[in-house]
């Protein structure tokens, strides 16, 4: 199953980076590839369900995911409960950097769900998802540091 892993150093303390990452409802305002994102259900401070719509290489990808938030570890795991892909799971994580900044990472594992075309489509989808993840992390960096 294809995996996408992207990490970016952000010159902001881990607590600030974590606050920005878990504030998913602000993503559409700062990430041009996120069309919409809504918290559909909040089950206490550690679990929620969100509905996503993102631009991905000229297409729109939509899904609903269940998220489990671990404030102490600064990580939230997610998995698709419905949507355009057959399988979509991953996590966001924040680690402290040696310079007082943050290492922000996004990890995704997916399956497009078309076995006969997966050999051809999975590399294309992986590239598109990697570029999308990089854009999301760069947008978080701009939001946190004010850089252009």
TrEMBL record:
<feature type="domain" description="Coenzyme Q-binding protein COQ10 START">
    <location>
        <begin position="10"/>
        <end position="136"/>
    </location>
</feature>
<dbReference type="Pfam" id="PF03364">
    <property type="entry name" value="Polyketide_cyc"/>
</dbReference>
<dbReference type="InterPro" id="IPR005031">
    <property type="entry name" value="COQ10_START"/>
</dbReference>
<dbReference type="InterPro" id="IPR023393">
    <property type="entry name" value="START-like_dom_sf"/>
</dbReference>
<protein>
    <recommendedName>
        <fullName>Coenzyme Q-binding protein COQ10 START domain-containing protein</fullName>
    </recommendedName>
</protein>
């Amino acid at each position: 199953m294809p995996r996408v892993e992207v990490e970016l150093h952000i010159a902001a303390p881990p607590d600030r980076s974590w606050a920005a990452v878990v504030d998913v409802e602000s993503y559409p305002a700062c990430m041009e590839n996120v069309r919409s994102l809504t918290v559909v259900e909040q089950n206490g401070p550690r679990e929620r369900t969100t509905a996503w719509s993102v631009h991905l290489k000229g297409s729109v990808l939509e899904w609903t995911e269940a998220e489990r938030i671990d404030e102490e570890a600064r990580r939230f795991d997610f998995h698709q409960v419905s949507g355009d892909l057959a399988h979509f799971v991953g996590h966001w994580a924040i680690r402290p950097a040696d310079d007082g900044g943050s290492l922000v990472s996004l990890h995704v594992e997916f399956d497009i769900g078309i076995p006969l075309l997966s050999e051809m489509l999975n590399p294309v989808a992986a590239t598109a998802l990697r570029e999308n993840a990089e854009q999301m992390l760069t947008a978080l960096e701009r939001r946190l540091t004010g850089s252009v």
